[in-house]
């Protein structure tokens, strides 16, 4: 089975390691490669991959919106998020979906964070934040507050989320990050790219003091400044490596029909990247 991940830069992608480990669980012969492609290069390189027998692909930065338009058909989650991270060959067509939110929710659940009825604070209003809102609402979140550096983008994202919400009981709100009200959030999810730039978010400290669980979608050998601030307030924390494995598991299930076990793969990655 020929699979690949497309993006730029792609050299450091962990996806081949993860999918090779999943395939081993089922004794499946899977060849999963990294393919460097910008938006200009995508169509040609993807066509070559398909010609060589490719039947499934992951799509990462900066191609997720491009892959959305490239897909012949799309899941409702892809339509809500405007982004595709997984392409599945169906007959002659490519079906596009987005497994990022499922990966986040699966990881939060494996960390025993109960989302049903929860008050969640989502930091950021870019593609990463937009990509996980449908899964958070489907998981039964009761109140979702979107806070962003640029308030107008948070407002736009909330308007969009309201329009597409599958639950009629969920409440949405938005603000600038420095104006986040102390609402007794159970979970804070950082979907900004501030961790990649090593920049601090101006979150009021009272918000941390009342939040038991803080999650950063960014992962790395060191905790981000956001996670360091959460730790200083005695919150439980996790980085986004589990989300990466979780979204991969959902993609793998769509390609193969098999649901891999993720815990051992995550442990192995953590040990490798310490
Ligand atoms: P992505 O696809 O990773 O979400 P994006 O669409 O560029 O990328 O969005 C990046 C997000 O991180 C935005 O919410 C951005 O805030 P703005 O909308 O105000 O630009 C946020 N972000 C990036 N760097 C940040 C920083 N240093 N402090 C606060 N927010 C930051």
Automatic annotation (TrEMBL):
Keywords tagged on the record: Amino-acid biosynthesis, Aromatic amino acid biosynthesis, NADP, Oxidoreductase
Domain Quinate/shikimate 5-dehydrogenase/glutamyl-tRNA reductase: 113-170
Top-level class of the enzyme under EC nomenclature: oxidoreductase
Domain SDH C-terminal: 240-266
Family annotation (InterPro entries): Aminoacid_DH-like_N_sf, NAD(P)-bd_dom_sf, SDH_C, Shikimate_DH, Shikimate_DH-bd_N, Shikimate_DH_fam, Shikm_DH/Glu-tRNA_Rdtase
GO cellular component terms, semicolon-separated: cytosol
Gene3D superfamilies noted in UniProt: Leucine Dehydrogenase, chain A, domain 1, NAD(P)-binding Rossmann-like Domain
Record GO biological process: amino acid biosynthetic process; aromatic amino acid family biosynthetic process; chorismate biosynthetic process; shikimate metabolic process
UniProt-annotated binding residues for NADP(+): 124-128, 148-153, 217, 240
Residues given in the record as shikimate binding sites: 13-15, 60, 85, 100, 219, 247
Shikimate dehydrogenase substrate binding N-terminal domain boundaries: 5-87
EC number(s) from the headed UniProt entry: 1.1.1.25
Biochemical pathway: Metabolic intermediate biosynthesis; chorismate biosynthesis; chorismate from D-erythrose 4-phosphate and phosphoenolpyruvate: step 4/7
Pfam families: SDH_C, Shikimate_DH, Shikimate_dh_N
GO molecular function terms noted in the UniProt entry: NADP binding; shikimate 3-dehydrogenase (NADP+) activity
Catalytic activity entry: shikimate + NADP(+) = 3-dehydroshikimate + NADPH + H(+)
NCBIfam families: aroE, PRK00258.1-2
Function: Involved in the biosynthesis of the chorismate, which leads to the biosynthesis of aromatic amino acids. Catalyzes the reversible NADPH linked reduction of 3-dehydroshikimate (DHSA) to yield shikimate (SA).
Subunit structure: Homodimer.
Family: Belongs to the shikimate dehydrogenase family.
Entry protein name: Shikimate dehydrogenase (NADP(+))
